[in-house]
């Protein structure tokens, strides 16, 4: 058994470096370990591809959702299993996998899975002509919030997202959106749209609460035209997944999705910018092997 522990020491404002040494010690109990420290995002992505190219059994990533996103690109379609040690701002992939929020407990869950020979197959989304994503692709208001969060210097955690929401409210505007989901075509004035492989984005917001990363389908949530006051009233429901009952919200399920409408929106996936709409998406069933609890159930945000 061979494991590469890939570390982004800057994740979580330095938490990555603090967690890494203990993570390495735990993995060395169950596997031969090689440690790689990446100085920046480009080096991290290159190191992830090199590890998978070397056909290691496990790629253990100490970082946030950005680090996980880079590792997903490398591990997709490979036999190398991805282990997530969450030390970032959102940790939405770890949450969807039912991993403990405490990074050292997440290490324990991963090493227990190695010892027990437990792996899970996870669907992935694919931006046609672009990258894969494990969690949610979004565009519109929520993507603008995501962009502001990425630029924020606030401490990690939910406060980053809450402050970004309040600041982006001043720019709230519904725009034309066309959603083509399998055989359904939806033309609406929309505030935002989210295509979920897993339920969560934004540090635990279940925007696509029914999304199952093992069913071969996306869950699509379209939020129509809502005013600032109405959106503020809806926000608590978004935290519980009850927003899907609001009359301005439409949900769909599909294997393939195309988002367009000439609105100029940029799509974000796994918290990372992708491309301006239009974009086409495909669900790729069982495209990623992960180390996670065998029967994990994610807690509501």
Automatic annotation (TrEMBL):
Residues 1-131 form the DAGKc domain. Pfam families: DAGK_cat (PF00781), YegS_C (PF19279). Keywords: ATP-binding, Kinase, Lipid biosynthesis, Lipid metabolism, Magnesium, Metal-binding, Nucleotide-binding, Phospholipid biosynthesis, Phospholipid metabolism, Transferase. Its cofactor is Mg(2+). PANTHER family: LIPID KINASE YEGS, SPHINGOSINE KINASE. Belongs to the diacylglycerol/lipid kinase family. This is DAGKc domain-containing protein.
């Amino acid at each position: 058994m061979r494991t590469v522990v890939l570390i982004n020491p800057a994740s979580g404002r330095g938490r990555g470096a603090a967690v890494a040494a203990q993570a390495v010690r735990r993995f060395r109990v169950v596997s031969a370990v090689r440690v790689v420290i990446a100085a920046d995002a480009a080096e991290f992505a290159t190191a992830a591809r090199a590890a998978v190219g070397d056909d290691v059994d496990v790629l253990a990533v100490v970082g946030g959702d950005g680090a996980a996103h880079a590792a997903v690109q490398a591990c997709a379609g490979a036999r190398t299993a991805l282990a997530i040690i969450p030390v970032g701002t959102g940790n939405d992939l770890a949450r969807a996998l039912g991993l403990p929020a405490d990074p050292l407990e997440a290490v324990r869950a991963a090493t227990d899975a190695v010892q027990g020979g437990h792996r899970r197959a996870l669907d992935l989304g694919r931006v046609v002509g672009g990258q894969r994503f494990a969690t949610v692709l979004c565009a519109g208001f929520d993507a603008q919030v995501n962009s502001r969060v990425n630029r924020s210097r606030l401490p990690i955690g939910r406060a980053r997202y809450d402050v970004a929401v309040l600041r982006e409210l001043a720019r709230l505007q519904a725009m034309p959106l066309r959603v083509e989901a399998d055989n359904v075509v939806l033309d609406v004035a929309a505030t935002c749209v989210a295509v979920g492989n897993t339920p969560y984005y934004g540090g635990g917001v279940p925007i696509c609460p029914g999304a199952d990363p093992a069913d071969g389908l996306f869950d699509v949530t379209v939020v129509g035209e809502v005013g600032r006051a109405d959106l503020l009233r809806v926000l608590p429901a978004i935290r519980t997944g009850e927003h899907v009952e609001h009359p301005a919200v439409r949900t769909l399920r599909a294997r393939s999705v195309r988002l367009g409408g000439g609105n100029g929106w940029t799509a974000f996936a796994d918290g990372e910018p992708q491309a301006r709409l239009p974009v086409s998406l495909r669900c790729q069933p069982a495209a990623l092997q992960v180390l996670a609890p065998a029967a994990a159930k994610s807690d509501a945000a």
